[in-house]
Each structure stands twice: as structure tokens, then as C-alpha cells.
Design brief:
Distance between the termini: 23 Å
Bound molecules: zinc ion
CATH class: Alpha Beta
Number of domains: 1
Strand content: 5-15%
Oligomer: single chain
Largest sheet: 7 strands, mixed
CATH architecture: 3-Layer(aba) Sandwich
CATH topology: Rossmann fold
């Protein structure tokens, strides 16, 4: 297949249902994958990747949702410890809906620390999961906690010799994530209802407002990729070229 041009490969990829449209994608290995979806707060992985997470777990893959903090600052007028407990319970419920495992990185909402010590700690946390695929937030998101976890993931990826597939995702596009030009799409039409339930598990976080925005994004990404709803990703140009649940 050496003579097959990149353009031809991309055209063929575009013909596969549910496939990555803009870049050739090697099908994921038949073995069980270990996937880590990181997020600055409880809810970010679910909003940005909930349909994709459901596709992974339906295929029998292992998915951990790694939250940088417990969202302690997320309800005005309530003590951080109480809010953290509420939002931890919401995250656990969302993970149950998506059949994923919750993990918490131990930072404090709104006070993420990105320094050598925290790079090392986060690297150990990621390495312990032995991930095949990791999803990170977009490095120029509006929220500082999103940028922090993106930087922590990126440093772990470099320290692990770029050994896992690295994808970026979007949340509240236009308001939080900006200048996001997807390279890959995952059809989530059949998982949209379950994603909605997982997002609404974060009942303290105005789901009527924020899920409505995210659903608009999923429908727009669906228009772009030829599906009813889709989630969109940017794969790092030096990432291994596999990992999305296209089966
Ligand atoms: Zn967030």
C-alpha cells in the first residue's frame, strides 16, 4: 500500500461509519484498552467525552475518569468541604452511569498547582494506570484548572516517552474552549441519551444551562462529520495513531 496517497487514505477513512474523518486511524487493538479521561473538575470528562466513554465501556474497555479536584468551589455560599462531598457523590454517580472508574488527583478547585513536584506526582498517577489512551482538556481553555490538567497530562506524556495516544477534547465551546479545530470525530448518536443522564448527575452544576450548550456542540460536530451527534477531538501530531472507539 506504499503508493496509496495520504489523500486517498483520508477519503477512504471518511467512508467508514463512525470513523475518524480527517485522518487515517489505525483500528484499536483487539485487547482491552486502558483509557484515562482527565478533567479539571467533576463533569468535564462527561460533558466533553461522555458519549465516547460509553462507547469504550460498551466495548469492554477500562475507563478511568481522573478529576483534578472535587469541585469544592462550585457552589457559592456553601463551605468547600460540603461542596466537595456533594460533587464527589455526583461524580461517582456519573461514573456508574458510564461504567467508568472515578479517580481524584487531590488538587484544590481554583487553586491548581503546576510545578515540578506536582508534575512528578501526576506522572506517577498516570503511569499507575498503564494507559493506552489519555484524553486531556484543551490547553487554551478559559478555566485555569483546565489549562493546569492539560499541562500536567502533557508533561506525563513526555516523561512516558509519548507512549500512549493523546487526544484533546472541548467543553462549552465558544465560551470555555476556543480555536478548537478537530482532527477526529466519534459518532455518539446512540450514546447521546446516556451521556445526558451522566451530565445531569452533576445536578449542582446548572445542567439545564451547560448541557444545552454541550448538546449544541455535539449536534454541530455531528453536522461536520455526518452523524446525528458526535464528539470531536484533536489528536497530538506525535501521538500513536490509534485509540478511538470506532468499532
Ligand atoms: Zn471545568
Amino acid at each position: 500500500m506504499r503508493n496509496l496517497s495520504r489523500r486517498r487514505i483520508m477519503e477512504q477513512a471518511a467512508l467508514l461509519p463512525g470513523s475518524a474523518l480527517l485522518a487515517a486511524e489505525t483500528p484499536p487493538p483487539a485487547r482491552k484498552l486502558h483509557v484515562v479521561v482527565t478533567g479539571g473538575h467533576p463533569g468535564d470528562p462527561e460533558y466533553g467525552c461522555g458519549g465516547t466513554i460509553a462507547r469504550y465501556t460498551d466495548l469492554g474497555h477500562d475507563v478511568a475518569l481522573l478529576y483534578l479536584n472535587r469541585g469544592e468551589g462550585g457552589i457559592q455560599g456553601k463551605p468547600p468541604a460540603e461542596v466537595g462531598a456533594i460533587r464527589t457523590a455526583e461524580a461517582i454517580q456519573a461514573c456508574e452511569i458510564l461504567k467508568a472508574r472515578p479517580l481524584f488527583a487531590g488538587h484544590t478547585d481554583g487553586h491548581s498547582v503546576v510545578d515540578q513536584q506536582h508534575y512528578a506526582e501526576f506522572h506517577q498517577l498516570i503511569a499507575a494506570q498503564k494507559p493506552d489512551v489519555v484524553f486531556a482538556q484543551w490547553p487554551i481553555d478559559g478555566h485555569a484548572d483546565h489549562r493546569a490538567i492539560s499541562s500536567l497530562v502533557y508533561e506525563a506524556w513526555l516523561r512516558m516517552k509519548k507512549s500512549f495516544a493523546l487526544y484533546y477534547y472541548e467543553v462549552t465551546t465558544g465560551e470555555d474552549t476556543l480555536q478548537f479545530a478537530p482532527t477526529h470525530y466519534v459518532d455518539i448518536s446512540a450514546q447521546a441519551a446516556r451521556k445526558r443522564t451522566a451530565c445531569y448527575a452533576h445536578a449542582s452544576q446548572l445542567p439545564d444551562k451547560f448541557f444545552a450548550i454541550q448538546e449544541q456542540v455535539a449536534k454541530f460536530r455531528g453536522v461536520e462529520s455526518g452523524h446525528t451527534q458526535a464528539e470531536a477531538f484533536v489528536r497530538h501530531v506525535q501521538s500513536p495513531d490509534f485509540g478511538l472507539p470506532l468499532g
